[in-house]
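Retro notes
What went well: the complex prediction finally ran end to end.
Inputs used:
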Amino acid sequence: MHIPDGYLSPATYISSYAAAVPLFAYGIKKLKESLDEKTLPLISSLTALSFLVMMINIPIPGGTSGHAVGAAAISILINPWIGFISLSLVLLIQAVIFGDGGITAWAVNSLSMGFAASFTAYFSYRFLSGFNRGFALFFSGWISAVASSFVVAFFLGIQPMIAHAPDGKPLFFPFGLEITIPALVLSHMVYFGIVEGVYTFVVVRFIQKTKNQILGEINGV
Amino acid sequence: MKDRLMLLLYIASVLMLTSVHDLLFLSFFLLSLFLISGKDLLSLLRKSFISVVFFNFAVSISYIIFGLLKGQEWLSYVVLLNLRVFSLTFLTFLFVSKINFFKAVSFSKTLQYLLTISYSQITAYTKSFEDFRLSLKSRLIQRPDRKDVYTFISRVFSYFFKKSVENSKEISQAMRSRGFFID
């Protein structure tokens, strides 16, 4: 879920930029240390892949469908820093060129759909894959969407507290945490999380099953 | 240089639009953006409207319902929110239509490179994906069942995943041959 422009106060988006930009720069530096010259081309190719993933509608049991974000799949297949950076670039391109999500909300969107989603998926998979790999894949996708929704709900929900008129009227997003957390997190637990879980399970299992050389090539770089 | 100056002006405008809460000021600002947009006005209006309509509608309607239930005045907030969101979105589209965004971020060679190559690959991938989607559609007489869709998605992801890694190797070699990595 992309937050558009105009829903976050300057105090929120400036501090979220202060957190996201150094993380982004640190991620690129860390990847450059391990991948060297192949870092930037690989990130840009996977950014295009992430963009594409958001165009694919995934049917889920119950007759509905939705699109995945894909951070979990990339994090599990390669590593969470690439997941975070690729998703952040997609969000920047979507905000500036396609008008999907706002430029003021880019950092919050990047921290939620990129950072939180990638790292929760990666560590959940690492922890659970020893017990049941199929479940670990589904759960990693599911938790990445739920964690991401929690971050978005938090940033939106604090707006009435930190930015309101003298008469108490909201100036940006109007609903508090008591509404945003149940509304966003529950909808992601029962719907979008399942879409992400199914997607992660289907595509990662296929890539791992086919045992193509690609993973070896990346990991061996 | 012009693009970078425009980027600074854009950032200053965004800060101003999110710091001032006066309806009259926001209205004048939006009107001046309409004037600057010139002959692109209608297409920018259309793009901005499509971009914000869903989210704004959902938030505005929910706020109106809450306001009516609690007996609170809701109009001024709904006008402020929609005016600000629309102005910011229109401003972004106007900014992108007037400058070369990729040149504007030239203060960082890495960011400029990442955005340029990513965007060019997004264009190519989107075209290929559309071909895949149409080829699947042309071979079916009824809607595919869920299992078939999962197979299609796995194959498509696998194809683009491999393509991404192979492309990155080719791009890396092309960059090396052009001296990109020589500081």
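What we learned: Chain B touches chain A through 67 residues (CB under 8 Å).
What to try next: split runs per interface for comparison.
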